[in-house]
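Problem 3 from the worked examples.
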Amino acid sequence: MARVKPKRHGVVTDMTAMCDVAFLLLTFFILTTQFKKPDVEQIKPPSSISEKLLPDASLMTINATPDGKFYFQPVDNASERVQLLDKMGQKYGVAFDNKQKAAFQRVQAIGVPMNQLKSYLDLPEDAQKSFKSPTGIPMDSTNKQLVDWVEQSLSVNPDYKLAIKGDVTTEYPKVKSLFEGLRDIDFLKFWLITSQEGKPNE
């Protein structure tokens, strides 16, 4: 007698749960992704084989352009930025109104001396982004405004960290004056931003 073959039924897979998980992951990555901010001026850092990553939070950055100009990028915390601006204003005798303080909360990087900061903050936001400073923030033996930005930032929050991004063609005396200024305020630990290169044995 022939064996009775069972009737085959098509397999139906419910993908509803998988779609929910996929959209949850997509939403998570969209909301948590931080895009890299473009440099105010084109900077090509020196290369290295270091694989250490910069901290995501509480990081202030100094950019050194090929012609030796300095830009300072405060930490991305709106309320602490206002405290920093007030402290710098007190130190240099400059008063900022509420509109200028609101502009400072959104600004990408500072690249002007303190006596020009008010007029810079009064510029429209598009003009600020395209602005190329002719001088940068002063940093020499007689005028150490760049170090003052770092020092006053640390007075707002001592846990701030610093990263320095210099162009590969920036003259050494310019960078040396910055290092000496940081040494004068006893701030000796910071990161140097470099571009990735292959390891020697690769």
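Problem 4, a separate protein:
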Amino acid sequence: MKTNIYGAFSLRAPLNEDETLLAKSHGVVFLCDPQGNDWYGLLKQFSDETVKIAFDESGLINSASYDASTMWPQSFSVAEVSDCPDTFLSQPGGGKWVFDGESIVARVLSAAELTEQAKATRDALLAEASQKISPLQDAKELDIATDDELSQLREWMLYRVQLSRIDPTLAPDITWPEIPA
């Protein structure tokens, strides 16, 4: 089956008299693509057997469904595809998939994106470690820490030091330290 592609969809104007009434009375919004395809008109043409995907100008897939009426493609293009990877429908969004003009493929992150993700992960883990360390450190400084708390403090401090030594530019080849129990 041929892949049908429409979009990018934008607000349609001018509206006829009935559409203007619907827009004013019920807040209905009308969309069309640059070829003049009306979104509501296209809904009737889509097959129930195909996956419909909404994607941006770079091909990044924003949403997917067998039922196009569940989608709102304003500022997105839409493709109707008959074949998709097995794992795609269980995780269609989240920046993990792209449409290459013919098929759905797993997105390959750039080195800069991998570095940014690693930095964000490291920073979040460092913040969590600091939260765990703070009350344990207080107990130690107040000389009321139990042996168990002192042991936990040492493990969390060691973990935090290990995290601080992570070089995000090595992503995806990073061995993350184990989170203390």
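Solution to problem 4. The chain has a mean pLDDT of 93. The chain is about 35% helix and 15% strand.
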